[in-house]
């Protein structure tokens, strides 16, 4: 209570850091997707719930990409909770740097035809997780295959025959020496009507400069900003894409 001009008034001061409450709530909802097995069996796995399904992911600690990173959960949460706006049913989807496969699995459960890619050494564990969690549950069997950024991309995925509706990527930008190759791979795979959904974990400055360079080639929209996780989720598309009206006028 304070007094102004002799009148007692009730007041309270409310400091709101923009987005802080939303960030905390969303981050909590995303992280609550993860559970540990209640009984320890002979094989270790991490559990996730998406699309009302239990997903079991086997990790392997000897490889960077064989661990599941929070960005993958952010992207999966977005896909599941925005399935009306970003309807994956029957869509051609490519995942880059799929790691342990959660994004591929959730996209497949949501009805997409997924091409799941990573480095050769990762493919065994990736294939295992993808098969274990999608077999008999999905309209399309996901394809797990090698894609080393920047290497033989046109030979392996010719633009004339490989047109993707979505390119999905979670936590693919960090201190590795293939950032230019990754940029070129996005550029090659992203055609006129392709959309990129990219969950980006910010760790160091070079990652910020990647986003700036990415912005030179692609139009970028921020879908989530989660400072508590240091993650942003972006939607991107080609800068030189014609608008729907231009396309219709040219037809
Ligand atoms: C930080 S992990 C993220 C894995 C997964 N997307 C996730 O969020 O859990 C980065 C992934 O990028 C892959 N990767 C790194 N360099 C690559 C390259 N040059 N070509 C293809 N994949 C690469 C790694 O093998 C790994 O699976």
Automatic annotation (TrEMBL):
Entry's Gene Ontology molecular function annotations: methyltransferase activity
Pfam families: Methyltransf_16
Domain of life: Eukaryota
Gene3D superfamilies: Vaccinia Virus protein VP39
Any one GO BP annotation for this protein: methylation
UniProt entry keywords in alphabetical sequence: Methyltransferase, S-adenosyl-L-methionine, Transferase
PANTHER family, sorted: HEPATOCELLULAR CARCINOMA-ASSOCIATED ANTIGEN, METHYLTRANSFERASE-LIKE PROTEIN 21E PSEUDOGENE-RELATED
Name of the protein described by the UniProt record: Methyltransferase like 21e
Lineage: Eukaryota, Metazoa, Chordata, Craniata, Vertebrata
């Amino acid at each position: 209570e304070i007094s102004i001009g002799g009148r007692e008034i009730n007041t309270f001061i409310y400091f709101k850091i923009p987005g802080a409450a939303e960030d905390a709530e969303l981050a909590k909802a995303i992280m609550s997707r993860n559970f540990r097995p209640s009984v320890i069996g002979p094989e270790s796995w991490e559990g996730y719930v998406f699309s009302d399904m239990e997903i079991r992911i086997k990790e392997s600690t000897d490889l960077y990409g064989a661990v599941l990173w929070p960005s993958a959960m952010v992207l999966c949460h977005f896909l599941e909770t925005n399935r009306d706006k970003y309807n994956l049913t029957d869509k051609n989807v490519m995942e880059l740097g799929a790691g342990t496969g959660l994004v591929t699995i959730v996209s497949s459960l949501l009805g997409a035809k997924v091409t799941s890619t990573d480095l050769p050494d990762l493919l065994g564990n990736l294939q295992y997780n993808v098969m274990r969690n999608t077999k008999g549950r999905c309209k399309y069997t996901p394809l797990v295959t090698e894609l080393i950024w920047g290497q033989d991309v046109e030979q392996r995925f010719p633009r004339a025959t490989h047109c993707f509706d979505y390119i999905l990527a979670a936590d693919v930008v960090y201190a590795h020496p293939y950032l230019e190759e990754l940029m070129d791979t996005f550029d090659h795979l992203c055609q006129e009507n392709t959309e990129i959904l990219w969950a980006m974990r910010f760790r160091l400055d070079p990652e910020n400069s990647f986003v700036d360079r990415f912005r030179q080639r692609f139009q970028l929209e921020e879908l989530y900003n989660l400072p508590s996780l240091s993650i942003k989720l972006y939607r991107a598309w080609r800068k030189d894409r014609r608008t729907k009206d231009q396309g219709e006028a040219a037809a």
